[in-house]
Amino acid sequence: MNEAAQPEALNCPNCGGSVMSDKTACEFCRSRLKTVGCPKCLGLMFLGSKFCANCGAKATAAVVLDESSAGDCPRCRKPMQMLQIEAVMVRECRTCGGFWSDVDTFEELCANSEKQASVLGFIGSEAHPNSHPATVSYVPCPDCGELMNRSNFAKASGVIIDLCKKHGVWFDADELPKIIAFISSGGLDRQREKEKISIQDERRKLRDDARRMSTIERRAGIAGIRDDDDVSGLRGFIRALFG
After folding, report:
1. Whole domain around residue 213: which residue ranges?
2. What interhelical angle do 175-184 and 187-220 show, nearest 10?
3. What is the pTM of this model?
4. Do residues 69 and 77 lie in contact, with contact meaning Cβ atoms separated by under 8 Å?
C-alpha cells in the first residue's frame, strides 16, 4: 500500500510566508488557501500564486469571489465557492471537486480554446480524491432546485452531464476535463458534421417522399387527393420544413 503523500512547504501568495500545503489558511496573514496543480509539472502551488515554485511555469490566474450567492453543491449539499479562472466564471464544490457553469459560460467554454486551456490548467486532469462514484442519480439544479436531465454530451462524448436547460450544467469532478479533452480533440466538430449530414439525409428523404406523393396525385387525380386531410397535413408539414 502506498503511503499518503506528505504535505510540502509552499509560500503564501498574499504575504510570502512559508505554509504547509495541507493548511487551508495562512498562519501569518490568515489568508484563505487552496492548493492547485501546476499545469506543466503538476506540482502543488497555492491558488493565487503567480508562478510554480517547482518548475517556474506561469500559474493560471484564479481568484475566489463572494460565495454568498454560489448556492449548494447538488451532490454534497455543501456551500460552493465562486471562482474566476482567467475570464471564466464557475462555481466549485471544495468537498467533491464538482463544478457548476451557467449556460452562457458553458457555450463560451465550448467555443474558446484559450478558456478551455485556462480551466484545464487550473483544475488539472487528475480525478478528485473525494469525487462521487459514477452512479445513475438525478440531482437538483443549484439555482432553481428542479431535478436536472442527464445527457451524453454531444451524443458522442461518453460523458454524462447533468443539465438544467434554463440555468446551466453540473460536472462531477472528472467530467469537465474529459469534456474539454473531447472538444480539444475535435470531437464536438466531428459530431456537428455528423448532425449536418443526418439533417441533409432527412431532407433528401422528405424530398423523395414529396416527389412520390406528387406522382400518386397525378395518377389518382388531384381532386381525390385534396379531400384527404391526412395527406394535406403531410404536404403542409413538408413545405414548412423548407419554408
Report:
1. 198-241
2. 70
3. 0.58
4. no
Reported as a single tens digit per residue, the pLDDT across 161-215 is 999 989 999 999 888 888 888 888 888 788 778 777 877 778 888 887 878 887 7
Number of domains in the chain: 3
For 33-82, the DSSP string reads: --EEE-TTT--EEETT-SB-TTT-PBPPPEEE---TTS-B-TTT-PBPEE
Same domain, 211 and 174: no
Residue 23 in contact with residue 33, Cβ under 8 Å?
A: yes
Spatial separation of the C-alpha atoms in residues 219 and 232, rounded to whole Å: 17
The answer to whether 48 and 39 are in contact (CB under 8 A) is: no
Structural contact between residues 186 and 163, judged by C-beta atoms closer than 8 angstroms: no
Phi-psi region of 130 (alpha: psi -120 to 50; beta: other; left: phi over 0): alpha
Nearest one of 194, 200, 203 to 240, comparing CA atoms: 203
Residue 141: its pLDDT value, please? 94
Centre a 10 Å sphere on the Cβ of residue 88 and count the other Cβ atoms it contains.
Answer: 21
Using alpha carbons, list the distances in angstroms from residue 131 to 75, 118, 155, 175, 238: 10, 21, 24, 10, 49
In a domain, 193, yes or no: no
Strands (E), 73-229: 81-85, 88-92, 99-102, 149-152, 160-164, 168-171
* Cα end-to-end distance, the chain, whole Å: 67
Measured distance CA(168)–CA(166) in Å, rounded: 6
Place of cell 489558511: 25
Considering the domain boundaries, does residue 100 fall inside one? yes
Residue 67: CB partners within 8 Å, gap ≥ 6? 79, 80, 81, 82
Rg (CA), the chain: 26
